[in-house]
C-alpha cells in the first residue's frame, strides 16, 4: 500500500499559523435567529470564503448543529468538507465516556466528520481519552480551565498539597502526552495473526481496514517474499524476530523487526511505475526513526545469501539516534513526546493561562472566551503563546459571525476578523 504520509494536527496548525500570520480561530456556531439567511451551510460558506485567508483554524461547536436535527448535521458535514484542506478544523464536542463508547465517539468525529482535532472532557480519566489519542495524526484538546463563571465550582478545588484541579488536569495531560514503550517487546505483548501484535503503529480504527489486506498478502506472497521469509522467520537471523506484512500507520511493510527498528521491502516490477509513492512511503517510515532496506525481486531470487548478509549487517549495527521528539529512559525504553494533546483554557482566566503555559511549554492551547464573555485579549495572547509566538489558538465566534445582520454580513465578518487578527498580532509581537 502507499499513500501520502499523514500530516499531524500540530504540523498543520503551525503551517496555517505561519502562512496566514494568524492565531485567530473562527467559531462556526450557527444560531438561526441571528443569521441574516436561513440556510446554515450557505451562511457558513459565506463566512469561510470571507475569512479563509485570515485564520489558523475553524471551530464548529457541534451543539448548534445537533439542535437543528438531521438538517443541522448534514450542514455540519458539508461545512467540514468545504473548508480548505490546509486549514485545521476543531470539532468542539467536549465528548467523554468509557471503553467502546469513547471509541465510537472518536470514530464518529475523526472518521465520519473528518475533524482534525476535537475537544474532550477528562473527568472520567485516561481510559476515556485514550481512544481519541489512538488517532496519532489528530489533535485532542482536553478541557482544563473553562471560560464560564461556574468553572470555579470544581476547577479551583485544591488538594492537600494546594494544587488546584485545573492544574492537576494540565499536568495529567502533560503526562498522557508522553508514551513510554520497551526497547524489545515481551512475547506476551506480541500476539497477532502469527503470534505478534500488528497494531503498535496503527490506530485501531485504521487497523480494522488494513487487517484483511495484510492477511490476504500473507496468504499470497510473491516468490521472492516467500523465499526470504523462509530464511528469516523464527529468529533465524541472529535471533532477531521479524513480522511479515506488518502495518505501520497506514502502510503495510513486507518485513519488520521491532528490536532493530528495521523495515525490509521487496520490490516487484510494479515499483518502477510508483517511484513517487515509494519515496513518500520511505520518507514517512524514516521519520519514525525506522531504517529501510529495499531489494528487488531479482536480487532476492538470484542471490539471497547476499541479501541476508546485508540484512544481518543492518540488524547488528548500532541503531539510528532517536529523533528530537524521542529520548532513551534509564531502562533503555523509548520515551516519545506526542504533539496531539492540547488544553482548553479560557481567556477569562489569564493568570491560569500563564500558569498552564509555564508548565506545559510545548502544548497547543485553545483559548475561548474573548468578545461577549469578556476575556482579556491582550493577556490571553501574551500568556498563551509559546517562545516563538505560536501554539495558541484564539477563538472568536459571535464577534465575527454576527458583525452584521444585513446582506453585508460576510463582508462585515471579514472586517471583524481582520481587525481581530491584527490586534492579536500586535500582542504577540508580530
Question: What would your notes on this structure say?
Answer:
It is a single chain. The chain is of the alpha/beta class and 430 residues long. The chain has two domains: 9-177 and 338-428, Aldolase class I (TIM Barrel, Alpha-Beta Barrel), CATH 3.20.20; 183-334, 3-Layer(aba) Sandwich (Endonuclease, Chain A). The protein has 17 helices and 15 strands. It has helices spanning 9-20, 40-51, 62-66, 69-82, 99-112, 126-133, 152-155, 165-176, 204-219, 223-232, 275-287, 297-302, 304-316, 350-359, 377-384, 398-401, 409-428, and strands at 24-28, 57-60, 90-95, 117-120, 139-145, 178-181, 243-248, 251-257, 262-267, 291-296, 326-328, 334-337, 341-345, 365-367, 392-396. The strands form three sheets. An eight-stranded parallel β-sheet has the order 2-1-15-14-13-5-4-3. Helix 14 links the parallel strand 13 and strand 14 (365-367). Helix 2 (40-51) crosses helix 17. The protein is elongated, with a radius of gyration of 25 Å. 40% of the residues are buried. Residues 1-6, 180-201 and 320-337 have low confidence and may be disordered.
Q: Which value, in Å, is the CA radius of gyration?
A: 25 Å
Percent helix range:
40-55%
CATH class of the largest domain: Alpha Beta
CATH topology of the largest domain: TIM Barrel
Write down the domain tally. Answer: 2
Strand segment count: 15
Average pLDDT over all residues: 84
- Report the CATH superfamily of the largest domain: Aldolase class I
How does the major sheet shape up?
8 strands, parallel
Strands in their spatial order, largest beta sheet: 2-1-15-14-13-5-4-3
Overall body shape: elongated
- The total of helices stands at 17
| Unreliably modeled segments | 1-6, 180-201, 320-337
Structural class: alpha/beta
